[in-house]
Amino acid sequence: MNARVTPAAAAALKQAAAQAMPKDRVSVYEQAFGQFAEELILQTRGAGVSVEPYLRNLNRIATLTAGLGAVLRIVAGNCVVADTFDAENPAMEPPLGSYTVNVLTNMAAEVCELITDDISGSADKLRDEVQP
Q1: Are 122 and 35 a contacting pair, CB within 8 Å?
Q2: What's the pLDDT score for residue 21?
Q3: How far is residue 30 CA from its own chain's centroid?
């Protein structure tokens, strides 16, 4: 059976879908949870706040996230290595053990928490500098 949707039916479906989803609601995964509120960002424009410590902090965070990305790629790739590993083939590297994967995963979580705390601290410091 070769069913076709008419243009009128497609338009009616789009209209019904648009009415069903309130425009001011977004998924929790799409919400912005920035530590630096828009109001605070705007207040820094004329406050004469030095951005140097914040830029240095961003450089540090960039280094941490680059390392974090590498660790997560190793952990993710380990599943493929484990699935394809042939113990009888001496040329194949064995997968990482579960303890090592656990240590790397916990380290990644710790780095994420460190970055979050660091950014939150920077936001608090900036608020203190900008707001009387």
Answers
A1: yes
A2: 59
A3: 11
